[in-house]
Amino acid sequence: MRLSQAQLKHLETCPRKFQHIYLERLNPPPTPEQWQHLSWGSRFHKLMQQRELGLPIASLAAVDPQMQSSINALEEAVPEIFSPHPPKETFRQAEHWRSCHFQGYMLTAVYDLLIADSNSARIFDWKTYPLSQKTRSLAREWQTRLYLFIMAETSDYPPEMISMTYWFVQSGGKAQSLTCSYDSAKHEETQRDLTRILKRFQGWLQAYEATGELFPQVPLSAANKCLECPFALRCQRLSASNSDTIQGWDTLTNLADIQEVCL
Ligand code: SF4
Predict the structure, then answer these.
(1) Is the pTM of this model over 0.90?
(2) Whose CA is closest to 4, among 101, 95, 107?
(3) Domain residue spans of the chain
(4) How far is residue 26's CA from residue 33's CA, in Å, rounded to a whole number?
(5) What sequence ranges are listed for the domain PD-(D/E)XK endonuclease-like (predicted)?
(6) Cβ-based neighbours of 234, under 8 Å, separated by 6 or more
């Protein structure tokens, strides 16, 4: 079974959400705002990949001024990435896919850009939102931990020679970065945490398949985390966490209260 950083994140934060999304395939559609942001981010990633392949992007970027200014800001901040003549003996690849087997699972990662030479292996990831205090905790997120772990497990680079840098391209016209270093202690810690999570996951999965036992939910004491979750009704967590929200849903589901819309 393949596991990505997103799946590990769900297994750690709410195993029931993992069950809904990956076992029951109940992924809810994004809101219009989320869709707009996802679509913009996807186009940005494709343009960066196209550029890395040596294909022209100027005309495509020019039709979207925000895209153009984000790419310009990134180029200004890190010209090395855009250099038409990278140093020889350097390996570069956009959308670089890697995987490693770990305790019966295949852990997978897709790096937006990998630059590797005899001194270092640098993983780059493009984030199409601003760097904020909240995003500074990215170093502890599973994306960072898994991406670094897989690089160390699948190459000859010692952990100390591997790093991961996030570039935030919508930070008020200026690209900003956050670099996460790696070392042997962090690698061992990730190995321990992966072992713990995968062992639990195996138990939940076996029980789910054998008897239909549901994966654990976040504890009721932390039910405020459910307020933003699209599965809150299914999990019967709205009433447990916020009575105001229940009123909102009750109102919404009362057809008589919905205003007529002229077409
Ligand atoms: S509503 Fe709460 S318990 Fe249910 S999937 Fe979402 S976060 Fe998990």
Answers:
(1) no
(2) 107
(3) 2-211, 220-257
(4) 20
(5) 2-236
(6) 20, 26
179's tokens: 């670099």
Atom of ligand 1 nearest to the CA of 225: 7
- Retrieve residue 124's tokens: 């780059």
Ligand 1 pocket test target in 23, 26, 224, 229 with most atoms within 8 Å of CB: 229
- Ligand 1 atom showing the smallest separation from residue 15 Cα: 8
> How does DSSP assign 65-130, residue by residue?
HHHHHHHHHHHHH-HHHH-SSPPTT-EEEEEEEEEEEETTEEEEEEEEEEEE-SS-EEEEEEESS-
- pLDDT tens by residue, the chain, 263 residues: 899 999 999 999 999 999 999 999 998 888 888 899 999 999 999 999 999 998 888 888 888 888 888 888 998 999 888 887 778 889 999 999 999 999 999 999 999 999 999 999 999 999 998 887 776 788 899 999 999 999 999 999 999 999 999 999 875 578 999 999 999 999 999 999 999 999 999 999 999 999 999 999 999 988 888 988 999 999 998 864 454 443 333 334 443 443 444 44
| CATH architecture entry for 2-211 | Alpha-Beta Complex (3.90)
Cβ neighbours of residue 74 under 8 Å, at least 6 residues apart? Answer: 81, 82, 126, 167, 169, 175
